[in-house]
Amino acid sequence: MRSRPVIREMRGAYAFVERNINLIKRYWGWEVVWLIYSLTNALAITYIGNGMSAITGQEIDTQAVVKYLLVGALIWQYLSVIFYAISEMIAWERWEGTIEYTFMAPVSRPTHLVGTTLFAIGYGVVRTLAILVIVSAFFRLDLSNANILGAVLMLLAGSVSFVGLGIWAAVLPLLYPERGAQMTNAVAAILLLISGVYYPISTLPNWLQPIAKCSPATYVIQGMRSCLLDGQATETLLPTIGLLIGVGLVVIAVGLAFFGRVETYAKRAGRLKRSG
Amino acid sequence: MCTYALEVERVRKTFTRKERVLRPEGKRRFRKHTKKKEEVVALKDIDLQIPKGEAFGVLGPNGSGKSTLIRLASTLLLPDSGSLRIFGHDVEQDTYAVKQLINRVSVDAAFFKKFSPIENLMYAARLYGMPPSEARPKMREIMTRLGLKESTFTQPMEHMSRGMQQKVAVARGFLTSPTLLLLDEPTTGLDPHSKRDVQAFIREVREAHHATVLLTTHDMEEADRLCDRIAIIDDGSIVALNTPDGLKASVPSDNGDNTTMEDVFIALTGRTFEDAEAEKEVDA
Fold first, then answer.
1. In this structure, what are the phi and psi dihedrals at residue A149, rounded to the nearest 5 degrees?
2. Do A104 and B172 make contact, defined as CB atoms within 8 angstroms?
3. Are the beta carbons of A1 and B177 separated by less than 8 Å?
């Protein structure tokens, strides 16, 4: 028990990784259902591209539309996994009733977050790759021109921002024991609407476009499309990657501070008590 | 050097409860009901000092403030006023140091229900920074001592009885060798045999490790058997504090029989335990 603080914190962080892996093993049925849902969703959206000529009655480069939609669907898959894994770090504990035990343990909130993030990134990559492999059987996705390294860097930079957004959303189940988890779905849906996942943000109403430009997902998805579809060079992406990491770190730092305040409020108001 | 495991100084805790009430006829626009806030005082300026190594009992009916006191000491609640110190560390200011010294067993055995006892205890051990090589044999030893069969260690918790789950909860509380153990009605709902197992284990560990124990219970016999001193709490206030024998001696027996803790409670509050709990249920 008397180990060095860094090792203690590392063990604490790994507790969340191991716990989440165990949750997947125990709730594997949910995982299958969720994977089927995500897969059919990605396929349904991509088939819209395939049917564009038939819908409009005009000659359209459907391959370009299919690739555009497919990249959007896959990236959104990954980013939403990161977002939900972080935002549900409180919701799971509420649901199982273990929140008081986790909050009573000598483990700092940043450590809690590091553990959850490590799991989320690993889980997000595996899940997105599984969907990519299956979707490849339905559509021909030519990535011969793609800049894979740039795409990976862009995705990792985008993950930082989504970890930050996840922390902000994780506050909701802390504040609202009964409805908080559902509220995070609304946050994810708004991000999906405004971030240009399936259409350029220029198609949004004028008043919504400035809001869309504030969403980190907008830049991640634009950057990913540039890398995967146009093969944009990594050097030209560096300013965007730097900006995403910078913004992400600020969102995480402010999110952690806000989470700390809300945790104090929850302790004062007695809202940590088991509920639901 | 601090001689007290727990010092509670003028601690007050209130909760706000929202109640749905009917709007007056003339003021009903969209909804028939409105919400009214009501303040409930859980603890009224409590003072308490528990020396190191003592087994201290807090005896009171449901809703008297026992669990609030435990939650405050567990860093899960913050007081409205006053302070709590654990081995000299302020619970509000020095939370991390406090968390390293305590663990808690509560009446509701909260676990990841689909995990096995081993998986749940390993999660707890890692959160407290215990290496698996140390945690694994210790958790098996404690669970065996509490009467759990080896075959249950890897079964999902949801397949276990309430008594077995509570024993795993006790094992989780003791696994990290806390210096101050907070036991919030640890034997409530257990069958007599399981209750005896848990009580014997608490006594054993206390003697072996000189840990301080804060035990809340509404089992008068349990408090009498396990505790060096007992505080009787009613409606958020401590109405008496003494050794079990001291409390009994303060209340003369009416019929010549030995005075029980229940006699003490009736003499101090004018109510039986059942009456006090029934009143709380009506209030709620």
1. -60, -45
2. no
3. yes
In CATH terms, the superfamily for domain B4-114+177-283 is: P-loop containing nucleotide triphosphate hydrolases (3.40.50.300)
Q: Does A270 touch chain B (CB under 8 A)?
A: yes
Residues of A in contact with B102 (CB under 8 A): 104
| pLDDT tens column, A44-72 | 999 999 999 999 999 888 888 999 999 99
Cβ of residue A19 closer than 8 Å to a chain B Cβ: yes
Task: Name the pTM for this structure.
Answer: 0.88
Q: Domain for residue A276, yes or no?
A: no
Range of the domain at A178: 5-269
**Number of separate domains in chain A:** 1
Residue A274 in any domain: the answer is no
Per-residue pLDDT tens over the stretch A165-185: 889 888 888 888 778 778 888
Delimit the domains of chain B by residue range.
Answer: 4-114+177-283
Q: Using CB atoms, which residue from B123, B126, B176 is nearest to A1?
A: B176
Q: Evaluate whether B109 touches B165 at the Cβ level (below 8 Å).
A: yes
* Chain A residues touching B96 at Cβ < 8 A: 106, 108
